[in-house]
Amino acid sequence: MKPSPSSQACGPAFDVAQWAGQLEACLRGTDIALLEVQAPGVCLRLQRVPDPHVMDKAARTLPVPLNETSDTASVLTAPAARAICQVRAGSVGRLRLVHPLRSQALVQPGQAVRMGQVLALLQIGAVLLPVTAPCAGRVGQWLAQDGALVGYGDPLLDFTTDTDKEARDAD
Amino acid sequence: MIEVLRTGALNTVQDLGRYGCLGWGVGTSGAMDNLALSAGNILLGNAPGCAALEVQVFPLRLRFLADCDFALTGADADAQLDDLPLLPWASHSARAGQVLRLGLPDVAALYRSRAYLCLPGGVDVPMVLNSRSTQLRGAFGGLAGRALKTGDVLRAAQARCDGAALALLPPELALPLHCEGSPAVRVLPAAEYDCYTAASQASLWQSEWTITPQSDRYGFRLTGQALQPKVPLEMRSHGIVPGVIQVPPDGQPIVQMRDAQPTGGYPKIGTVIEADLWRLGQMPIGSRIRFLETGWDEALHAQAQLQGWLADVQGQVQLQQGRRGRA
Amino acid sequence: MARTRDALPPMTALEDAAPVFSLLGTTAALLEAPGPAMDLPRQQRIWALAQLARHWPEVQEAVPGMNNLMLTFKQAPRDIDSLRERLVLAWAEVTPLPLQGRVIELPVVYGGEGGPHMADVVAHTGLGVDDIVALHSAPLYPVYALGSHPGYCYLGGMDPRIATPRRQAPVLRIPGGSVSIGGFQTGVSASPGPSGWNTIGSTQMCFFDPTQAMPALLQPGDSIRFRVEKVIR
User: Fold this and answer.
1) Which of B165, B312, B323 sits opposite A125 (nearest CB)?
2) What is the pLDDT of residue A47?
3) Could you give the percent of chain B with pLDDT greater than 90?
4) Are residues C199 and C155 in the same domain?
5) C-alpha angle B30/B105/B243, rounded to 5°?
6) Residue ranges of B 169-198 with Cβ closer than 8 A to chain A
């Protein structure tokens, strides 16, 4: 399923991954180690993470072979960055981490997911609203309990977006 | 637009049935599970009675030839879109080229044997005598009056691919009905009920009835304690409706289902109420069922409960879709 | 609580036995006119009752059967007793419809491939093929009702001398246009399908066309005459 407002990490016209990628590109040449942005329904945090692999490459004198999808600049000069955002409830409802007809949780913490993948469900009466991944990324910690009654905008899940262009293109 | 890559026999296009034609010898047909068909339509924003594909033989493989929303309700049939598992009782979006696979229904998860595939605006086949249901005996209605074949192309009445996705809790969670651990349906006694022995009447209510493999959209042949009339009964041909429980000479009851003939000549011991036909229509072959004696007022109440569930779902789905529109 | 056969006391103005009202779930109600099997005057009363009841607000369709009437509901009426009283009263008061429909003549090829069970009728009745054909094609058969499958007519008026019981094992598929005898009744199938009756001949006629405004060729009140086109021995 494609992203829906119930995830509320991004509205229908807002592409978190693209925005995070643009911010990351801006931050590259700076000393800024942490940038946090709050907007209605969105919390976006960019944190610089040292990447030993890239620093190795930067130290080499030989050119690094390029693959089809890599960006030369990001491979040779910038450490990779990951954006952590929070997936928030787009509605009042009861949080369901397991579909009522299934026995296994929809996703596991640490699991890599693609954009639009169903992470959880919000139950309102007979309707189950999918909580979907706003972009490709990785499931973090659940911030609300299975079965809990949540309110509109309540944080549900820590989610690490995949700002790496290669990973995005692979979606 | 959808191309049928692989289908078993007896998957047909159905809506809620063809009414007003009994006087011409035309039975009502329609979905064996009218509730699942309606719910699937509601998920897509369709009128509840739009035509859909009833799948009762699995596996099924379809390829989308255009981007298209769709909904799947009824049996939990291990649905996959390309290699992505789909949640049951939900609407989804497909891109052109994607393949939808329905596998064997998982009856442990959900005790159901028929799935419904709904498309935006309904499956686009001609209306014949006020309905898009398939009339198999008369060879008209639905898709050219016959079951689905490999190579068939099904069209949606509307081209829509919103990507809006919703899921539902199936109705049996809100409206369970069991009797001593077995699935049950409510029955109103019929005209010849009093012609049966007291032991047979007791058998009807107290014993388990098994749905034999000789069961299909025309009727479910049950097996159990033979039902005996006090004296042999000779009936004149009379109108019947889906749900009528006939007792042929061998005493093993037959429940008339959606493709029932409009008339019958066997004695009738009872009728499964309209409000419970969806339950019966979903029961897999081999199921053991119970009949619960009921009265007129209770039967009307059961019908009102069903309508309430549908209205509830309709309201909540529209609310969610309305909120998306504003977002 | 449960409603089965609810016979009301006989109406004083009527020489008939009382009709019997019963339920078919919450989907329909059935009114049966008891008495000797398949009486034409009773059937004419059933037709008149159908014509009246089809306009009642709770009624979807009024469907005549063989000396009985089924009323299907648009929505099951809360007060079913009131409907029952209204129906039984109407049965007593209604004026039977005259038999004034069309007469359709059907050319029949008796025996041969289209009449595979003629020998069984011969064996049961003790009559020869020519006598059976003569007795079958003589009467004018009123169409009592439609049912069974699209366009199929239940006919009255068959000569009891050619009555033959239904078969032990039904035939899985007889072609449309099959002319058959089942017990004391005769009929013509309108489309291919299973049948437990004895097929003695075949006819070419379109009994049902769903593209027409009136899709069935025949209506209750019409009549059929079988014309002998050929006898294959």
Assistant:
1) B312
2) 67
3) 90
4) yes
5) 35
6) 169-171, 173-174
Touch between B and A (at least 3 CB pairs under 8 Å): yes
Q: How many domains does chain C have?
A: 2
Tell me whether B139 touches chain C (CB under 8 Å). yes
Domains (ranges, CATH) in chain B?
2-174 (no CATH), 179-294 (2.40.100.10)
- Residue C157 CB-density burial (10 A; 0-12 exposed, 13-18 middle, 19+ buried): middle
Using only C-alpha atoms, chain C has a radius of gyration, in whole angstroms, of 19
For residue B194, which residues of chain C lie inside 8 Å, CB to CB? Answer: 4-5
C125 part of contact set with chain B, CB < 8 Å: no
Are C112 and C187 found together in one domain? yes
CATH code of C123's domain: 2.40.100.10
Among C69, C93, C117, give the residue marking a domain's end.
C93
Ranges of residues in chain C whose predicted pLDDT is under 50:
1-15
CA distance C82 to C90: 12
pLDDT at residue B159 is higher than 50:
yes
Q: Is residue C1 part of a domain?
A: no
- Would you tell me which residues 49-88 of chain B have a C-beta closer than 8 angstroms to some C-beta of chain C? none
Please count the other Cβ atoms lying within 10 Å of the Cβ belonging to residue B249: 11
Check CB contact of C40 with chain B, cutoff 8 Å.
no
Residues of B with CB below 8 A from C83's CB? none
- Quote the CA–CA distance of C211 and C94 in Å, as a whole number: 34
- Report pLDDT for C11: 38
Amino acid identity, residue C134? A
What chain A holds in terms of domains, given with CATH numbers, is 16-170 (2.40.50.100)
Provide the CB-side half-sphere exposure for A90 (13 A, CA).
26
User: Residues of A near B (CB-CB distance < 8 A)?
Assistant: 1-2, 4-5, 11-12, 91, 99-102, 118, 121, 123-130, 132
What is the ipTM score, two decimals? 0.95
CA-to-CA dists, residue C207 to B131, B299, C107, C218, angstroms: 20, 38, 14, 7
Instruction: Please compute the mean of the pLDDT values over residues B99-127 and round it to a whole number.
Output: 95
* C66 and C165 part of one domain: no
Instruction: Write out the residue range of the structural domain in which residue C143 sits.
Output: 103-232
Please say which residue of C51, C67, C93 terminates a domain. C93
- B316 interaction partners in chain A (CB closer than 8 Å): 124-127
Q: Based on the domain organization, do C146 and C51 belong to the same domain?
A: no
